[in-house]
Amino acid sequence: MPTEPLVVDHVTKVFTSRRRTPGGGRQRVAAVDDVSFEIAPGAAVGLVGASGSGKSTLAAMITGAQRPTSGTIRFGGTDVGRLRSGGLRRYHRAVQMVFQDPYGALNPLHTVGYTLARPCQNLLGMTVHEADARVRELLDTVGLTPPEQFTGKLPHQLSGGQRQRVVIARALASDPALVVADEPVSMLDVSLRAGVLTLLARLREERGLSMLYITHDLLSARVVTDELLVLHTGRVVERGGTKQVLQHPQDPYTVQLIEAVPNPFALTG
């Protein structure tokens, strides 16, 4: 497991639009614009911004799903943008993602046991017997107990909170060093969010996980992160300790995000 930080170094991602400029060329849009930061081993960094700010594009580059237009992303001595199929497979043992939508992230035709066993076999080379034992351990870790009650269930037989716990368990299957959590509670009812956030915080503490927590929800960021980066139109406009940024924001955009919180006093408690 890498003991080095994740380093995002002057990363830019430009997409070419179908729209044409007055000169006849294609319009170019910078979804991520010259972003730099680090996540130390065991640290949790929050990436906060409204929809369209570039958060998910940055997550896609960190996980290797997209390549930067310029700049580099390095983890464990690896330049992520240069990885190809075999290298990406090894990289995904160390870096996993928790997706926003627990309903869309799970194949409706696969049982929970099958969903969790596949990464154990494909990424860790476990036997069927070893993978079965690992599945039970993962379900216990995320609070789906007794495991025997969940291994044979299909996603539609689970609640939203249970589905998201399965998604988290799948991300933990390869024993990663870094988890990228992209809006992991935004699709859940308010009553379920606290449980999932508590689970993420506990897993980070117990396993020493590094985490990039991506959200537009400042209240949830306050629960699970040490440091905040505020992203606006692809650029980092503010950064600092989570408590410092929330209680003493410097950038007008950060102030707008805080003012949009239904109960801003919850950020200072």
Write the layout of secondary structure elements.
Layout (H helix, E strand, L loop, with lengths): L5 E15 L5 E14 L4 E5 L6 H8 L7 E6 L2 E2 L5 H10 E4 L13 H13 L3 H14 L18 H13 L5 E5 L7 H18 L2 E6 L2 H7 L2 E6 L2 E7 H6 L4 H8 L10
Parallel strand pairs: 3-8, 3-9, 6-7, 7-8
Antiparallel strand pairs: 1-2, 1-4, 4-5, 9-10
Helix pairs in contact: 3-4, 5-6
Polypeptide structure, described:
The protein is an alpha/beta fold. It has a single domain (6-267), classed as Rossmann fold. The protein has 9 helices and 10 strands. A hairpin with a 2-residue loop joins strand 9 and strand 10. It is globular. The two termini are 36 Å apart. The model has no long low-confidence stretch (mean pLDDT 90).
Low-confidence stretches: none
**Order of secondary-structure elements:** EEEHEEHEHHHEHEHEEHH
Number of helix segments?
A: 9
Helix content: 25-40%
What is the count of β-strands? 10
CATH superfamily: P-loop containing nucleotide triphosphate hydrolases
Radius of gyration: 19 Å
Q: Note the beta-strand portion.
A: 25-35%
Number of domains: 1
Mean pLDDT across all amino acids = 90
Q: In whole angstroms, how far apart are the ends?
A: 36 Å
Helix/sheet category: alpha/beta
Task: Tell me what the CATH architecture is.
Answer: 3-Layer(aba) Sandwich
Give a quick account of the main beta sheet: strands, pairing sense, barrel closure: 6 strands, mixed
Shape summary:
globular
Per CATH, the class reads Alpha Beta
Write out the strand line-up for the largest beta sheet, numbering strands in chain order: 6-7-8-3-9-10
CATH topology: Rossmann fold
